[in-house]
Amino acid sequence: MSEANVEEKQTTSKGRNPILLIGGMFLLGLALAVLLFGNQLIPGLTQSEAFVQEPASSSSGLNREDVPLPDRGAPLNVGDIAHDFGLPDLDGQQVALADFKGKPVIINFWATWCPPCRIEMPELQRAFEEYQEDDLVILAVNESERPDQVQSFFYDEMGYTYTPLLDEEAEVGEMYGAVGLPTTFFVNSAGEVTAIHRGVLTQSQIESYLEETIQ
């Protein structure tokens, strides 16, 4: 190859390199601008083309963070309205607290493996029998046990006659804040919590609480 040809090729290469460099920088800048500004930069550009990802939304058009979570209730205090709930009894029938509107109710959270629960249950049975004329309702909410376990203890072994309910997932216990067993809530005919007792109940305590509950 002659010196003239070599010199001509070097000159051409030197002339092309700046053009390629500038062109490459322009394309890189354009891609970065599209990535950052999307359809604000180029009219008609769709969100998918601009690589813009919006938060997941529900069919109603609300963003995920706008969808309210189910109300699991808040810790109850004396004077609060008791949280309504529905649970199955041992016959599989759904029983709700609202079913007993206008009546005094004792809500007792318990389990067969809980010795303090076993100690107080005869006192609850005695109160149930004594206050029948006052329409007293006792809901014995069993936490996380099988129906046959509850049936065997509650009816077959002990012969209690108030109402056992099955809280198999402990959801109602959690909603009421029954973090230890036994825990008992006294609710008057207006649905207001009149007393909250954690631990074993004695006969005198039950009677004292019922004086504030049955009006």
Characterise the protein shown here:
This protein is an alpha/beta fold and 215 residues long. The chain has two domains: 3-56; 86-213, Glutaredoxin (3-Layer(aba) Sandwich). The protein contains five helices and seven strands, in the order H-E-E-E-H-E-H-E-H-E-E-H. It has helices at residues 3-37, 115-130, 147-157, 171-176, 203-213; strands at 86-88, 94-96, 105-110, 137-143, 163-167, 183-187, 193-198. The strands form two sheets. It has a five-stranded mixed sheet with strand order 5-4-3-6-7. Strand 6 and strand 7 form a beta hairpin. The N and C termini lie far apart (117 Å). The model is unreliable at 6-16 and 32-70 (pLDDT under 50).
Features:
five-stranded mixed β-sheet; 2 domains; globular; 215 residues; two-stranded antiparallel ribbon; Glutaredoxin; alpha/beta; 7 strands; 5 helices; 37% helix; single chain
The domain tally reads: 2
The percent of residues in helical segments reads: 25-40%
- Fourth CATH level, the homologous superfamily of the largest domain: Glutaredoxin
Q: Treating each run of at least 4 consecutive H or I residues as one helix, how many helices?
A: 5
Residue runs with pLDDT of under 50 for 5 or more positions? 6-16, 32-70
Quantity of strands, as a count? 7
Q: What Rg is obtained from the alpha carbons, in whole angstroms?
A: 36 Å
User: Strand count, sense and closure of the main sheet?
Assistant: 5 strands, mixed
